């Protein structure tokens, strides 16, 4: 029986043993404790979860975050999102094809009373922003309920195995994202008045200024004095032929499978989008032993940090700028991807198409705020604030700091004696939100004596862990904030290699001429891949920052000091002529990225815009050309936006088609929003019990009784 779980990861421990029995279409399998249905199926190599009733097209996952409904299956007789529901012992899982059988109407249901719980602050979202806000509110003694729809807190931090940029003091820079999430959770749980509800889904903000939640199958109403929306972002989709094939999904879904659930979700991956999300996901794929065939970006250069791009290039991944995806190809699953070059008008240049064999196309073309709760709260007059991506799309480091600011602001608004938000906090938040700045020519020192670090970062980004970690204080940042480039006092280096290990971009090497034979130098290089992939005495190919091969050199030492946090420090002996140019070790052979001999072309207007209802771009364009300017009218004509995802995935794609047809968006009437943000069984509102366990913790009841008594 195949098992696609990742057993040899450089950062993550081996996954636990699969012991939970379940069936898929009658066939028996084993899942890990707490593993979602989707991940358990992927671990068996199953990526097609059903077929669409309209045209029989195969369906798999897309977001793996509960935002769409493409991964829906029948589990023990109920339609569920397979990415959100954990496998239970003996669970029978079937494809969602046809209609699920309805329960016996004579069956006796158990009910529980619907409780309305007051609180001072309700925080929606347990990611970096929500946790940071909860910490500040906890310090101020504010009564808080923090809810998150996942089993674990941390949001996207849970998926981040890389070290973070920013400032060590402000946002734990130099620490891996997954560990930052644990630090924040530990701090939140110290405050007794901050109650944490995981596996809890927010449904809507209602006109009486209450918020409906479903907690582990039980419906609860919370009545907050103030609401903080820290719900993060959802991934944008993209219109191209084959965009709904199993094997086409978002970067967050990929990271969920690989980094949270430790499932090898792909053998050969192609990435669409050169922002930080796409660049980081490609690096995570390499760490998981997945071949990264390439990455394409429509702009002149990648929009993410240059150090992320450079890291991929010097590991052997080609970056195709001014290119776009034409089609994902395959009958039942992705078998290849076709990309093409763009002209100055962002149109495909005929004849430039190339097809690459792959089994997965990862779509990383940006994020949209999950801000429906924010809009509803404002509509109904519930005092509300937003933090993190729900307020503005930025890095997780910025989300932590905006959450910190909002927490203090809410505490002050509730009458706590916390003072004003320090001006420096606002300044730090703006710095952490900064987009990549100017790129300069990399400066290589002329000296060939002694020992010193070389900084292969040449772009202004908010980052300074190297300055904080140097025990001699010899590394400084140009300018007055952390956006400058690092500089070094060459006389002070003691060859501790801590700057090499802490750099989030793996952009620092240490060159040591002191003990090396004449005409050579020893170069220490950060390496975040499985220890089994490199040994002392082996020969490796080294590359410069631009990915150019410098030569093959011997490995003289491999060590894993504790301060490197699961990374290896690889020391090679290199000729002096190339030693200072070495920026990394090639981990992927060039043949992986060669295009196929035959090009698979596109068919215009067949691209799917609404994946729930299989509405094509051609159908939408036809109605736009007939004068439709209202998305609600378009919905009634085509069913676009009427599907199970609740109209979350296609609105931006539909608006893009209007723009492409020359219709300004100020002439287009937006969708009328659905009253409930997430799907819920109607029985929940009647208190029908779908699971066991209390609606709320006994400690929560006591805390809120005390809170009410103090009003």
Strand and helix layout:
Elements lengths: L19 E5 L2 E5 L5 H6 L7 E2 L6 E2 L12 E4 L2 E4 L9 E5 L19 E10 L3 H12 L4 E4 L20 H4 L5 H12 L5 E4 L2 E6 L5 E5 L2 E12 L3 E3 L12 E3 H10 L7 E5 L3 H12 L3 E7 L8 H8 L5 E3 L1 E7 L6 E6 L12 E4 L2 E4 L3 E3 L2 H9 L3 E3 L9 H18 L9 H10 L18 E5 L9 H5 L5 E3 L8 E3 L9 H5 L5 E5 L7 E8 L11 E5 L5 E11 L8 E8 H4 L4 E2 L22 E3 L4 E2 H9 L5 H8 L12 H10 L37 H12 L2
Parallel strand pairs: 1-7, 8-9, 8-13, 9-10, 13-24, 15-22, 16-17, 16-22, 17-18
Antiparallel strand pairs: 1-2, 3-4, 5-6, 5-7, 11-12, 12-13, 14-23, 19-20, 20-21, 25-28, 26-27, 28-29, 29-32, 30-31, 30-33, 31-32, 34-35
Helix pairs in contact: 2-4, 2-9, 5-6, 6-7, 9-10
**CATH class value of the domain at 115-233 and 369-432:** Alpha Beta
Q: Main sheet?
A: 7 strands, mixed
CATH-level-4 superfamily name of the domain at 115-233 and 369-432: FAD/NAD(P)-binding domain
**Anisotropy-based shape:** globular
CATH architecture of the domain at 115-233 and 369-432: 3-Layer(bba) Sandwich
Question: Residue-averaged pLDDT, rounded?
Answer: 90
Low-confidence stretches: 692-711
Q: What's the gyration radius in Å?
A: 26 Å
User: What is the beta-strand fraction?
Assistant: 15-25%
* Count of beta strands: 35
- Termini separation (Å)? 61 Å
Structural class: alpha/beta
Q: Fraction of residues in helices?
A: 10-25%
- Can you tell me the CATH topology of the domain at 115-233 and 369-432? FAD/NAD(P)-binding domain
Number of helices: 17
């Amino acid at each position: 029986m195949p098992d696609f779980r990742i057993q040899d990861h450089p950062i993550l421990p081996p996954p636990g043993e699969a012991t939970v029995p379940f069936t898929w279409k009658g066939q028996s399998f084993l899942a890990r404790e707490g593993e979602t249905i989707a991940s358990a199926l992927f671990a068996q190599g199953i990526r097609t979860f059903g077929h669409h009733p309209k045209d029989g097209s195969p369906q798999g996952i897309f977001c793996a975050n509960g935002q769409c409904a493409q991964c829906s299956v029948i589990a023990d007789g109920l339609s569920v999102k397979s990415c959100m529901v954990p496998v239970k012992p003996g669970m029978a899982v079937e494809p969602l094809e046809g209609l699920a059988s309805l329960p016996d109407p004579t069956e006796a249901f158990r009910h529980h009373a619907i409780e309305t719980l007051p609180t001072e602050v309700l925080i929606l979202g347990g990611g970096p922003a929500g946790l940071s806000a909860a910490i500040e509110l906890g310090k101020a003694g504010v009564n808080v309920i923090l809810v998150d729809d996942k089993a674990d807190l941390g949001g996207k931090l849970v998926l981040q195995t890389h070290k973070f940029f920013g400032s060590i003091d402000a946002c734990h820079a130099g620490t891996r994202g997954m560990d930052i999430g644990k630090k924040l959770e530990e701090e939140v749980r110290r405050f007794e008045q901050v109650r944490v509800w995981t596996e809890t889904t927010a449904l809507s903000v209602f006109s009486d200024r209450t918020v409906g939640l479903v907690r582990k199958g039980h419906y609860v109403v919370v009545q907050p004095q103030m609401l903080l929306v820290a719900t993060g972002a959802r991934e944008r989709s993209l219109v191209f032929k084959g965009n709904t094939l199993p094997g086409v999904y978002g970067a967050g879904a990929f990271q969920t499978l690989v980094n949270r659930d430790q499932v090898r979700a792909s053998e050969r991956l192609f990435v669409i989008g050169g922002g930080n999300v796409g660049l980081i996901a490609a690096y995570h794929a390499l760490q998981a032993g997945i071949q990264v065939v390439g990455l394409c970006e429509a702009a002149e250069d990648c929009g993410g940090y240059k150090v992320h791009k450079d890291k991929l290039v010097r590991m052997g991944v080609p970056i195709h700028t001014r290119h776009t995806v034409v089609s994902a190809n395959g009958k039942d699953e992705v078998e290849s991807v076709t990309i093409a070059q763009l002209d100055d008008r962002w149109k495909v240049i005929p004849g430039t198409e190339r097809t690459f064999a792959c089994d997965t196309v990862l779509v990383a073309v940006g994020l949209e705020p999950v801000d429906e709760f924010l809009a509803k709260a404002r509509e109904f007059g519930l005092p509300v604030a937003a933090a993190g991506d729900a307020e503005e799309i930025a890095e997780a480091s910025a989300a932590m700091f905006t959450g910190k600011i909002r927490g203090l602001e809410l505490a002050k608004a509730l009458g706590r004696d916390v003072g004003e938000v320090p001006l420096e906090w606002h300044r730090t938040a703006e710095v952490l939100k900064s987009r990549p700045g100017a790129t300069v020519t990399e400066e290589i020192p002329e000296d060939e004596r002694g020992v010193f670090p070389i900084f292969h970062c040449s772009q202004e980004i908010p980052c300074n862990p190297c300055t904080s970690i140097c025990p001699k204080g010899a590394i400084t940042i140009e300018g007055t904030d952390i956006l400058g480039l690092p500089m070094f006092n060459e006389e002070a280096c003691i060859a501790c290699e801590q700057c090499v290990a802490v750099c989030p971009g793996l952009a620092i090497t240490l060159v040591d001429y002191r003990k090396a034979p004449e005409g050579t130098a020893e170069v220490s290089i950060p390496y975040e891949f499985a220890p089994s992939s490199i040994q002392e005495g082996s020969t490796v190919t080294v590359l410069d920052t631009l990915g150019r091969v410098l030569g093959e050199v011997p490995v003289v030492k491999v060590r894993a000091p504790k301060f490197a946090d699961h990374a290896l420090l690889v020391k090679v002996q290199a000729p002096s002529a190339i030693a200072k140019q070495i920026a990394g070790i090639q981990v992927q052979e060039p043949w992986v990225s060669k295009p196929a001999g035959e090009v698979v072309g596109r068919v215009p207007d067949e691209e799917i815009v609404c994946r729930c209802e299989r509405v094509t771009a051609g159908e939408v364009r036809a109605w736009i050309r007939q004068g439709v300017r209202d998305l609600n009218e378009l919905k009634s004509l085509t069913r676009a936006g009427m599907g199970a995802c609740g109209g979350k995935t296609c609105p931006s794609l539909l608006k893009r088609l209007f723009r492409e047809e020359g219709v300004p968006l100020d002439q287009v009437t937006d969708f009328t929003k659905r009253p409930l943000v997430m799907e819920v069984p109607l029985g929940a509102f009647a208190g029908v019990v779908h699971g066991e366990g209390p609606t709320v913790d006994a400690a929560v009841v006591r805390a809120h009784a005390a809170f009410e008594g103090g009003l």
